[in-house]
Design brief:
GO terms for molecular function: hydrolase activity. This protein has two domains: about 325 residues, TIM Barrel, CATH 3.20.20; about 130 residues, 3-Layer(aba) Sandwich (Rossmann fold). The strands form three sheets. A six-stranded parallel β-sheet has the order 5-4-3-2-1-9. The protein has a six-stranded mixed β-sheet with strand order 10-15-14-13-11-12, with no helix packed on it. A three-stranded parallel β-sheet has the order 6-7-8. About 40% of the residues lie in helices and about 10% in strands. The chain is an alpha/beta fold and about 500 residues long. The chain is built from 19 helices and 15 strands.
Length: about 500
């Protein structure tokens, strides 16, 4: 039987103990719901570094601004962080889909001025609701087409394109007064496993890492990125059997030493399997701190007992001499730069979002004028990182514009679908079709019978059907991407 968390458990650990209070100052907590529970407010008063917000904390901008004000008032201007990448990974717009295209679309457009404008607009929305640190952009180089965790979150598979757009994204957030955080060091793009569920391995020599994964990190560091997030991945030649988050070779020798990074090293969520499977979240927090991390993100909704255990584990690591006491002061001084109140004064201007989504469209063939279209949206499960955010064109298509059917692997029924589409346009919407053999088979069957069909790919355009009359690749499934696709198809686009 699971014991209910005690609201007093965090305060009982921190109390008046100076070492424990300093240890609390490197921990980033979280909680569920639109209002902070008492233990979070007490924890901030007792020295917690800050809070990372998730979708469950967000109702609307007004509520989020009030929440951020409450959090900052509880502590000494704590860090208010959020995982807001735009595109497929959004917390601000988790209920509606992001009005901003994600990195794959920005990389496909390949206009660094536009990327900076999009991130400036996104940053202005974050600043307006009191966020001080955005855990973005992802500067992973997505070299594995079947990567289950990065995909459209990456600008490209080209390290130099990723580097220049990563620098532009950092600059855009900073224009709006929000600190940027480049992730996931030393690079999650070559993995074929999700670090939420397993420990992925990137088994390449360090020279390959330097020429590929590290290029964008080096550029972002030189451009003044104040924060870098670790990856829970194993690089045998660098980290041995450990994930990079827990490896001093990765964090101190490579990131601090070779790349010269002097900012805040924040961990990816420590509740993820790749970090915590060995000994639990609290032990992972202590090990990450000893390895060189400054800010320990415990993950979604850890509860007061887990937060208290992490604080206690870090303090104990210092008492045991695994890390010098000065490391807490050093980390605290770095984190202080992220504690400032957010910027402001940059107006929210979403016009760049739709311009970028339009520029990202890849079109093959001529899109026909639609006649009472039947839109088939093939079900693609959400990733853990993105969560169940609305996607596709179906949420933005009015009944007057067409009929929408959701189709999943258990019931593809191509004959019925073709009959239902008789004498009308057929549009098939997919996300990362290359990952799902059933989608590939169904689409090929449909377009063989209906070569005038339109296929809209809202993930990465790795696979393309042979006979489709028109093929559109949006490079992302956000609301902005849907708007650009619908506009091209002659349908009134949703407001972004």
């Amino acid at each position: 039987m699971t014991r209910s968390p005690s609201p007093e458990s965090l305060s009982s650990v921190v109390g008046d103990d100076e070492l424990s209070r300093a240890a609390a100052g490197v921990v980033l907590a979280s909680f569920a719901g639109p209002t902070p529970p008492p233990w979070v407010l007490r924890g901030l008063a007792d020295g917690l570094a800050g809070v990372v917000l998730f979708g469950s904390n967000v109702v609307d901008p007004e509520q989020l601004a009030r929440l951020s004000t409450t959090l900052r008032a509880a502590g000494d201007d704590p860090v208010v962080a959020i995982d807001e990448e735009g595109g497929d990974v959004t917390r601000l717009a988790h209920a509606t889909g992001s009005p901003y295209p994600g990195n794959a679309a920005l990389g496909a457009a390949d206009d660094v001025v536009l990327t900076r404008e999009v991130y400036r607009a996104l940053g202005s929305e974050l600043a307006a609701v009191g966020v001080t640190l955005d855990l973005a952009p992802s500067v992973d180089v997505n070299t594995a087409a079947d990567n289950p965790i990065i995909g459209t979150r990456a600008f490209s598979h080209d390290p130099h394109l990723v580097a220049r757009h990563g620098v532009a994204a950092v600059a855009g957030l900073h224009d709006a007064g929000v600190a940027a955080c480049v992730k996931h060091f030393p690079g999650h793009g070559a993995t074929r496993e999700d670090s939420h569920l397993a420990l992925p391995t990137v088994d390449v020599p360090l020279d390959v890492l330097r020429e590929r994964e590290l290029v964008p990190f080096r550029a972002a560091i030189e451009a003044g990125a104040p924060c870098a997030m670790t990856a829970h991945i194993r690089v045998p030649e660098l980290t041995g059997e450990l994930p990079a988050t827990l490896s001093s070779a990765a964090l101190q020798r490579l990131l601090r030493g070779e790349l010269g990074f002097a900012g805040v090293v924040v961990t990816d969520a420590l509740d993820m399997h790749a970090a915590s499977a060995r000994a639990g979240i609290a032990a992972a927090a202590a090990d990450a701190f000893v390895a060189g991390a400054d800010l320990l993100c415990l993950g979604a909704e850890p509860g007061p007992e887990v937060v208290a255990a992490a604080v206690a584990a870090v303090a104990e690591a210092v008492r045991e001499g695994r890390a010098p006491r000065e490391r807490l002061d050093e980390a605290g001084a770095r984190i202080a730069a992220l504690r400032r109140p957010p910027g402001g004064g940059v107006p929210v201007d979403r016009t760049a979002a739709l311009r970028a989504a339009r520029a990202a469209l890849l079109v093959r063939g001529a899109a026909p004028a639609l006649r009472r279209p039947l839109v088939l949206q093939l079900h693609a499960p959400a990733t853990i990182a993105a969560g169940p955010v609305p996607w596709g064109i179906a949420p933005w298509l009015s009944p007057n514009d067409g009929e929408v059917l959701d189709v999943d692997a258990a019931d593809p029924r191509p004959g019925e679908l073709l009959a239902r589409a008789a004498d009308r346009s057929l549009v098939v919407v997919v996300r990362d079709a290359h990952r799902y053999p059933w989608m590939v088979g169904l689409i090929e069957r449909l377009v063989a019978e209906r070569p005038d069909a339109v296929v809209v790919e809202m993930g990465l355009p790795v696979w393309r059907p042979r006979h489709a009359g028109a093929y559109l690749a949006t490079h992302g499934a956000a609301r902005a991407n849907a708007a650009a696709a619908l506009e091209l198809l002659g349908v009134d686009a949703p407001a972004v």
